[in-house]
Amino acid sequence: MSGARVSSACAAVLRRDLLLAWRRRGDMALPVLYALIVATLFPFALGPEAQLLARIAGGVVLVTVLLAMLLAFDGLFRPDLEDGSLEQLMLAPQPLPLLLAMKIAAHWLTTALPLMVIAPLMAGMYHLPWPAMKVLLLALLIATPLLSLLGAVLVALTAGTRRSGMLLALMLLPLCVPVVIFAAGAVTAAQQGLPWVAPIAWLGAALALALVLAPLACAAALRIALDA
Amino acid sequence: MTDTSAALLEARGLTFLRRDEPVFGPVDFALRAGEVALIEGDNGSGKTTLMRVLTGLLHADEGSLLLYGEPLSVERASGELAFLGHQLGLKLELSPLENLRVAAGLFGQRKGVSPASALASVGLAGYEHEPVRRLSAGQKKRAALARLLLIPAALWLLDEPYANLDREGIALVNRQVERHAHEGGAVLVTSHGAVTFLNGAYRRIALAS
Amino acid sequence: MNKLVYWYHKLGSPPTFYRFAGVLRPWCLAIALILAVIGLYGGLYLAPADYQQGDAYRIIFIHVPSAWMSLFIYGVMAVAALVAVVWRMKMAEVIAMQSAPIGAAFTFITLCTGSLWGKPMWGTWWTWDARLTSELVLLFIYLGIIGLFHAFEDRRHGARAACFLILVGVVNLPIVHYSVVWWNTLHQGTTVRIFGKSNITTSMLWPLLVMMFSTKFYYAASLFGRARADLLDLESGKAWVKQIASDEEARS
Description:
heterotrimer; B: Rossmann fold; 6 helices; 30% helix; 25% strand; C: mainly alpha; 0% strand; globular
């Protein structure tokens, strides 16, 4: 008999989730489409004035990406819970937080990364100037994994409940307020020609902290959620 | 090293409550290496709940559960036990072979067994690359049984392993269980009591509802 | 220390807590009402009108104690949640879960009175002031906890999950507050300070403190009542509840 090494277990989980996403790649397009639709609606409501659109561009793109990610969160644990894969994951002789970190990473790669690809397109529709666009992309690059990690903890908590999209939104709002504030703050500062490094640095610090703590919290939450 | 004289799995006064009403218990048993035990009970007698308690995923309210003489926790139990529940833990979009490779990555694999050979010994040769979604219910069950053969676990917890299986599949489960016991493992099987397919010497643990 | 442990276990047992809370509840309620009458009399009648705000400031005798309570109750819940998550103690789950609606109510009162106060002060019903915004986020945290608790089929299961969420909120709440303060200074500069450097006179301060104690006792009375009702439901299969039920029947 030979046990599995942690690295091969992590690789197996990551490969499986990416493969699953690839087999259902149609689903991957849905959040992207949703974000595009929401971003298209704002100018109709507010008017096509370029100056106004440029001023709200950073905020709109951030919130749109956030909402699209929220839409995709349900797919993080629920399919695994329903077919029993999650039990097998929890019974594996491996550190559960690490395995969950792999699942979160795969989820980020398949839902948030496509959103980041179309973010410049959305920002372009709002006439966001190039220097601010760079800051927006940097902010998204840090803020989206942070949101994935924070969201994963809450999704794990709701894993034992009936379908609960609205509840998840309610629970996630307090957690994402600081993320939105700092990410949008950086873009606004860049647009006004002010230094924008400080809010980005705060986001980076939060991400570093979340990378360590969120998988642990996620594992604890999942154990609580399945203990019934 | 683990103490081999202690029972592989031992339950003492194990009780699980839901809203202060016992779902099962108190249950007492000791399972030694090489033993097979059948947990019998009617629908709703708490067989599935007991199985989940034995995996360590659920906490029992009263009593204690010992693995090799030490208190069982999900961290301690992982790797020692293989669990086959009502939900098979197979990904429908992946092929049986891909599913087993994931299991091997997570749990490791027995010496001399590969995902392909495990599939062949449950009679799924030729279906290795078919997505699990296209397999019949019985074939899915066989794919899940192949996981038991592949991963190195001493204790098997099988919750209603005979459901959806044909006569040949039932014989296959029995052969697997006997061989596992013969090789020094231990097996717990649940059944709702009407028909028992296990043959040979085995213990019965009755759950009253 | 031994005494403390003794009481911890004693009050952790539902029948003892039920009796203990039943004895204390009327007293707490009476003290809360008396203190409220004294405090409101002092605040609304005895205290002088503010030289800048006139009589409008008098809403602080509701607003400020409510705001303190909204945080105090969260603190109580956090301690109970920690005990519930670590030691899986049923009584702590009950305390945390039954405190949440009371805390949400105080938060809601804080927001409403803050908004009412904002109209004469700032000329608007709502301003994105750092304190008000944090309070709004706190309300969402409370609602999330209550929502999660009720989303589970099994009550104890829901309570454990919600207790975990309370602990997540403990970490999150200060972060939200400081980020909102930062955001606020970035966007609109500091707004009106509610208190200067303790420029509040004694005649205004004592009714405020009396109201603070009144709300504390009200919370205790309300919590005891809610927890008692919840315990009867939660332990409905146990002998001590059946005993109470048969006693009640005999009396009527």
